[in-house]
Specification:
Elements (H helix, E strand, L loop, with lengths): L9 E2 L37 E6 L2 E9 L12 E6 L6 H9 L12 E6 L2 E2 L10 E2 L9 E4 L2 E4 L2 H14 L8 E7 L1 H12 L3 H7 L3 E7 L11 E3 L2 E6 L20 H5 L4 H9 L3 E6 L12 H4 L5 H16 L7 E6 L6 H5 L2 H8 L2
Parallel strand pairs: 1-10, 4-5, 4-10, 6-7, 10-11, 11-14, 14-15
Antiparallel strand pairs: 2-3, 3-5, 7-8, 8-9, 12-13
Length: about 350
């Protein structure tokens, strides 16, 4: 039996430091308050770069955080990992997480927030960090470091970061981890939740619970080849005449990536693991516009907009796993909100899930 402890750890993942992509999604400001200006720490040297050794790759990525990872913090109980969107803006997600503590109802001093930066190579001018040749959100291993090709997945870097924090004597009292992401970050969170091995190894060993907040992604990972029937979204069947690649990794479980193969992760592993992950799906009721929506043939089989795609996917999970999936997975449509990560995090459902209240 899996036991989820009440304490929470927050890690925020983000990417940018001033460099934005051409496909930046401007957040909908409907019913939002003015963003809270929070003073953040931008440390120099090792604390502004996360250094790692993964197989033969000795490299680094930028990150934003409210604490130094190199210092001892016995007071920390919670970790928030927030994954950035295609705006590649770690500072935004750090501030979004910090703003949850504005009321003072929860002690931010007990929460470590980390925002790692996973840059696509054409979105930054930095040359001393790992970048990815394609979007990193699905775990591609097509990366570069100092202009040389390396085989490395952003999922491996996140694995390494979590493994180091969990095992570090700098945070001996960690009890809970929340990994959250909005938009493209939500795409990464749902797929990472399904295939990471950290939860069932290091986290379990140290009695640390994990949960995942998936906010308004453009697409979802299906556990088999069925998709919603166009005439009835509550009926799922194998789509007649669909192109051969519609169920490849990212949309489905065919042709898994090198990350999976290196970690001996199979499609059956993913199906089993995802059933027991603690996941909350959030989307705004007004999130029905384009907002850089994935319009590929594979994505369009999942629905016509973000709101519809989330509602269909949650129905699919209940069809795939049975109603018992609701013991671990839940979904909520947030009123009066469009495509806004901050607004979703500040919703009643978002705050409760993130802060463990």
């Amino acid at each position: 039996m899996r036991i989820f402890l009440p304490l929470v750890i927050l890690v925020v993942v983000a990417i940018s430091y001033g460099y934005q992509s051409n496909d930046v999604v401007k957040e909908n400001t409907t019913h939002q308050t003015k963003p809270l200006q929070v003073k953040t720490h931008r440390y120099k040297s090792d604390t502004q770069r996360y250094h790692f050794d993964i197989r033969t790759v000795h490299a680094q990525i930028p990150y934003a955080s409210n604490m130094r990872l190199s210092d001892v913090h016995t007071e920390v109980r919670h970790l928030i990992v927030a994954i950035h969107s295609s705006s590649y803006n770690p500072d935004t997600y750090l501030n979004n997480a910090l703003s949850l503590f504005e009321s003072g109802a929860t002690d931010s001093g007990k929460t470590l927030i980390v925002a790692p930066a996973f840059f696509r190579k054409d979105k930054t001018k930095l040359s001393d960090i790992v970048t990815w040749d394609v979007s990193p959100f699905w775990g591609s291993s097509r990366a570069s470091y100092h202009k040389e090709k390396v085989e490395l997945s952003a999922y491996e870097v996140l694995d390494d970061l979590l493994r180091r924090i969990i095992g570090s004597k700098n945070f001996p009292n960690l009890s809970d981890i929340v990994i959250l992401g909005h938009s493209a970050g939500g795409q990464m969170v749902t797929r990472y939740a399904a295939c990471n091995t950290i939860e069932d190894t290091e986290a379990l060993k140290h009695h640390i619970s994990m949960r995942y907040l998936v906010m308004a992604p453009s697409s979802y990972l299906y556990m088999d080849g069925r998709r919603a029937k166009r005439s009835d979204h509550t009926v799922f069947e194998f789509p007649f005449g669909a192109h051969k690649q519609y169920n490849n990794w990212g949309y489905g479980l065919k042709h898994l990536y090198a990350y999976h193969k290196r970690n001996h992760i199979t499609a059956d592993n993913i199906r089993w693991n995802y059933k027991y992950r603690k996941v909350l799906y959030l989307v705004g009721e007004l999130d029905t516009k384009d907002f850089a929506l994935d319009k590929s043939k594979s994505a369009m089989l999942e629905g016509s907009n973000r709101l519809e795609r989330m509602e269909i996917y949650y129905d699919y999970l209940k069809t795939c796993y049975g109603d018992e999936i609701t013991d671990h997975h839940s979904m909520s449509v947030v009123p009066h909100v469009g495509h806004s990560g901050r607004a979703l995090m500040h919703s009643a459902e978002g705050r409760k899930f993130i802060l463990g209240q």
